[in-house]
Amino acid sequence: MARNDKRKRQEEEEEEEEIVSIPSDESDTSDEEKPIKPVPSEPVRREIEEGEPGSLTGRPLRLFADGIFDMFHFGHARALQQCKQAYPNVYLLVGCCNDEMTHRLKGRTVMTEEERYESLRHCKWVDEVIEGSPWVLTDEFLDEHRIDFVCHDAIPYTDASGQSGDGDDVYAHIKAIGKFHETQRTEGISTSDLIIRIISEYDTFIRRNLKRGYSGKEMNVPFMKEKVIKLDMAMDKVKHDIEDYFHKVFGKAEDVQHSFLNLFSKEGALRTSLRKRRKILRESLADMAREGLC
Question: Residue 66 and residue 135: Cα distance in Å, rounded?
Answer without folding.
Answer: 9
